[in-house]
Amino acid sequence: MNLNRRDFAKLGALGLASRLAPKLNAQTSEKKTGYAVIGLGRIAGHFMAGVRNSINSQITALVSGHRDKAERIATEYGISTNSIYSYEDFDRIAENKAVDAVYVALPNSMHCEYTIRAAKAGKHVLCEKPMATNVADCESMIAACKAANVKLMIAYRCHYEPTNLKAVKLIRDGALGQVQAVESSFGFNIRPGEWRLSKKLAGGGPLFDVGIYSLNACRYLTGEEPEDITAYASVLDHDGRFNEVEENVSWTMRFPSGIVASCCTTYGAPMEGFFRVHGSKGWLEVSPAFIYEGLRLRGELSGTALDEPNAARDPSHFQAEAEHFSHCVQNGIEPQSPGEEGMRDMQYITRIYRSAGIAI
């Protein structure tokens, strides 16, 4: 992928840094921001591996309901057993000077509680997406972090990933001419018993989990906020998995410039996460666009073919987002994907659900 630090600087000069580009040029401090990881599931493993590769971050504490699992991970990462917390005694983390920030990797409905508790403990918060399960919780999270004078960042990996940023740069540079339409999708065939099938824990179905990537991508690709949204939802497989959440969601958006976007997400079939942008001078797509590795940028711009595979491997996305947030914490800078970014997506998710006739 041909997007280096100089290209990132160009993104900043174009004004894209205000929404997308991480500030990499000052991330050479010898200090390391200490993270407490809250929840030790699959995504936490990717994050911890990314932190281990980082230049300015380290894992210094763990929060889990399974002490034996936490002790095994603590040994792997050189963490003192005194820095292992349960959910019940989590608030004692305020006394741990080795913890500067927390990474919230819990089920969606628990994001609000632990963000607020972390803020009250004086710790900065990097929270997984979706930010929460309703707009009111997003507002509470933002207010709590502001009141405690700590930073809040939502873990939108693609905001810090070179292939996605290259696509945005090409669009902003006018390589596609006038953008007309965007297509995006992401989904998978979910296994029975996943916590994501519980409305209480997840808030909803695939839109909260993987569909949010398409929603957010349409926003950063166009640089606009949708004004009109129409959506449909369905359940096709009546096998017990979808008693509480929907299986499929499809929605369209119209942006103020007139750009239209069409997106879909599912828990019922393999659906490679991708986006394609159509403009007056050609098209570009990133496929896959949202998984942890193997991203590929393709297109045809004014008759010139584009094909750029990205050789970066997992956990590079997590390393990039951790380094960005640590840089923000150490230098008093607002992150590029703050709580307000997560809240905007939650506002649009609410509108999509209402259009589809689903209570949220």
Order of helices and strands: HEHEHEEHEHEHEHHEEEEEEEHH
What's the helical proportion of residues?
A: 25-40%
- Quantity of strands, as a count: 14
Strand content: 15-25%
- Judged by helices, strands and strand pairing, the structural class is alpha/beta
For the largest sheet, list the strands in their spatial order: 8-9-10-7-11-12-13-14
Continuous helix count: 10
Terminal CA distance reads 40 Å
Largest sheet: 8 strands, mixed
Structural Rg: 20 Å
- Uncertain residue segments: 1-27
Task: Describe the global form.
Answer: globular
Mean pLDDT: 93
Entry summary:
The chain has ten helices and 14 strands. With 360 residues, the chain is α/β, with parallel strands linked by helices.
Please give a handful of descriptors for the protein shown.
8-stranded mixed beta sheet, disordered N terminus, 360 residues, alpha/beta, 14 strands, 24% strand, 6-stranded parallel beta sheet
Protein model, in words:
With 360 residues, the chain is of the alpha/beta class. Strand 11 and strand 12 (282-286) form a beta hairpin. Helix 4 runs parallel beside helix 5 (135-147) and helix 5 (135-147) packs antiparallel against helix 10 (339-356). The protein has helices at 5-13, 42-52, 67-77, 111-120, 135-147, 162-172, 199-202, 206-222, 316-331, 339-356; strands spanning 33-38, 57-63, 84-85, 101-104, 124-127, 152-154, 179-189, 228-234, 248-254, 260-266, 268-279, 282-286, 296-301, 304-309. It has an 8-stranded mixed β-sheet, with helices on one face. It is 33% helix and 24% strand.
